[in-house]
């Protein structure tokens, strides 16, 4: 796909402020396309005093956000703090199509009612990262609905099937004779048209969104606009350190979870994964994080540095006091430790519902009692409070605790 510059203007010199802004923009990113173009956009913005228009679109396919979602929101906040106009776009129209990115089957489209319900919480949760007073919130039904049949046909004429099939997941499905519905081809076109409607200078997204973001560049060119630049952020690994963070995989940290739960989950990540979380989630300077690394290499306990990360994240989504309380709770539980003689048992049926697991491990008399204990915050897995009654525990070995005295080390297969 062509990502060449469409601007033939005389190159502007890059001031120290622009160089610094470029450094901030590039921190932790997977790709910035095209960096030289974006540098010129920053320089023109500085010269004119006109902020860049920076767009992030999220489809409200689920009601809650987790820390994985905040990787790209953090980048938006950094750019917002540089004085640029960030646009939080809720894809209420595109949700009805269903983003096929990275999928090998057709995603069932959501109903208007489902989308409306999920959208209610999206911006309020995103506002825990972004400054809501400086954030433009838009819904893409504003310009997608008025397109109508004629407009959709005219838009579709601006892109070829061959270009759409360049997308890897479409190619794989086509070659394996896996069905692709026609409406799925519309998704990248509609996402690209959002960039035209918003006159976007920069669009952010996860690495799985690269193709869709580049379609936006191409459509802007077709509509005679200056092309947006593309910034892709890595997909954050979950608590297991392997799979990307996902509620369905049970390896997530929800941004509305209790502070104590968030803290304990963050403390459970590996010492190696801690640096990845620092890079993608922390607002500390790169110089501070580099110093932390040197301190650990020099003998400082990595646990101390992990505590600082956990406190920062809990304070961001709750309060400084909540972070202090979470640390105190964690230390208190750490002192209590896990008894040396806890029962060890093996269970099958992974992924196994939390209620069944507690019953089969003889930690609760029934599944209903188990779910009540979860609801009351009395269940922990590897020290983290479990609040999701629908949780399915994946294969592996975990320490399960019910109340203060019931423990079991369960190996689930």
Write a structural description.
This is Tyrosine--tRNA ligase. The structure is a single chain. This protein folds into three domains: 16-233, 3-Layer(aba) Sandwich (Rossmann fold); 257-337, Tyrosyl-Transfer RNA Synthetase (Orthogonal Bundle), CATH 1.10.240; 339-413, RNA-binding S4 domain (Structural Genomics Hypothetical 15.5 Kd Protein In mrcA-pckA Intergenic Region, Chain A), CATH 3.10.290.10. It is built from 17 helices and 13 strands. It has helices at residues 16-26, 35-48, 67-81, 112-126, 141-144, 148-156, 161-164, 168-175, 182-198, 210-222, 259-267, 271-281, 286-297, 302-317, 320-336, 354-360, 367-375, and strands at residues 31-33, 53-58, 85-90, 135-139, 202-206, 229-233, 344-347, 352-353, 379-381, 384-385, 392-393, 396-402, 406-412. α4 (112-126) links the parallel β3 and β4. α11 (259-267) packs across α15, α14 crosses α15 (320-336) and α16 crosses α17 (367-375).
Which descriptors apply to this entry?
single chain, 413 residues, alpha/beta, Rossmann fold, Tyrosyl-Transfer RNA Synthetase, Structural Genomics Hypothetical 15.5 Kd Protein In mrcA-pckA Intergenic Region, Chain A, five-stranded mixed β-sheet, 13 strands, disordered N terminus, tyrosine-tRNA ligase activity, ATP binding, cytoplasm, Tyrosine--tRNA ligase, ligase
């Amino acid at each position: 796909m062509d990502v060449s510059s469409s601007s033939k203007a005389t190159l502007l010199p890059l001031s120290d402020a622009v160089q610094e802004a470029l450094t901030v923009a590039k921190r932790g990113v997977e790709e910035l396309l095209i960096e030289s173009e974006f540098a010129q956009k920053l320089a023109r913005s500085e010269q004119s005093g006109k902020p860049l228009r920076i767009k992030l679109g999220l489809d409200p396919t689920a009601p809650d956000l987790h820390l994985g979602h905040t990787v790209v929101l953090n980048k938006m906040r950094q750019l917002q703090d540089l004085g640029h106009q960030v646009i939080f776009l809720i894809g209420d129209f595109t949700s009805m199509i269903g983003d096929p990115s990275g999928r090998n089957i057709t995603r069932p489209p959501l109903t208007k009612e489902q989308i409306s319900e999920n959208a209610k919480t999206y911006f309020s949760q995103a506002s825990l990262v972004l400054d809501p007073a400086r954030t433009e919130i838009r819904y893409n039904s504003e310009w997608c609905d008025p397109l109508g049949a004629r407009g959709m046909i005219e838009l579709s004429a601006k892109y070829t099937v061959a270009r759409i099939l360049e997308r890897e997941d479409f190619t794989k499905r086509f070659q394996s004779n896996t069905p692709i519905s026609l409406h799925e081809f519309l998704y990248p076109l509609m996402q690209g048209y959002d960039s035209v409607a918003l006159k976007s200078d920069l669009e952010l997204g996860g690495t799985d969104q690269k193709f869709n973001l580049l379609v936006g560049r191409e459509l802007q060119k077709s509509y005679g606009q200056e092309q947006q630049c593309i910034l892709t952020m890595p997909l954050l690994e979950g608590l297991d350190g392997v799979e990307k963070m996902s509620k369905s995989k049970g390896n997530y940290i929800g941004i509305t979870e209790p502070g104590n739960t968030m803290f304990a989950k963050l403390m459970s990540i590996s010492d190696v994964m801690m640096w990845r979380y620092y890079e993608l989630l922390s607002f500390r300077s790169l110089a501070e994080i580099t110093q932390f690394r040197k301190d650990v290499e020099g003998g400082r306990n990595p646990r101390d540095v992990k505590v600082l990360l956990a406190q920062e994240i809990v304070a961001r989504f709750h309060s400084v006091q909540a972070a202090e309380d979470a640390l105190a709770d964690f230390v208190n539980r750490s002192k209590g430790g896990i008894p040396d003689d806890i029962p060890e048992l093996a269970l099958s049926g992974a992924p196994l519902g939390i209620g069944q697991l507690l019953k089969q491990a003889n930690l609760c008399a029934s599944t209903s009692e188990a779910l009540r204990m979860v609801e009351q915050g009395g269940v922990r897995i590897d020290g983290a409070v479990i609040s999701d009654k629908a949780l399915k525990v994946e294969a592996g070995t975990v320490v399960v605790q019910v109340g203060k005295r019931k423990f079991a080390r369960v190996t689930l297969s």
